[in-house]
Amino acid sequence: MLAIQIASPSLFMKQLLTTEEYSPFLLQEASISTAYNYTINGRLLGDFFAQEGCEPPPAEDKGYAPWSVHKPLILQILKGRRRPLSLKLILLLSTRTTEEWLAPHLDPALYGQIASVSFQIRYSHHPDSREESLRITTGISYHSFQLSKEAEALWDAAFLRFLDQAHLEYLLL
Asked: Which of 1, 45, 130, 165, CA to CA, is 20 to 30 A from 172?
């Protein structure tokens, strides 16, 4: 698990909301505080689409939709001249991306215990001081307790490469 401070929150948010860099991820949860508080559970509710034979948007692992499905709504909430007071996003790696990034490097027994691979984004803005911060925490959850930290080390290294490829400056906390 890593805690990362992003040097330029504005650049990170611009990439997150306007590029396809984050397409390999699924939205698990979003909480946004502007003039109102918004909470989004990223799990697709299939019953909603059962009405009148509507076609649901694409859902991947465990019923979570890709970040790209939620991005327009979140961008609409954030639009405007004022920055949000806070934002929290939990993004998951899809099974396919997890297989590409981690499976080749892990013992199959350990890989089989991985329930989810995620990172949490926490943005905060203090209007009085105009100070803003953006922190990211990486993590892996398992089906059962694991002594090995090999998967976390691989995920942390892969995520740092991802940030480097996006040309984002950061500080490890």
From this structure: 130
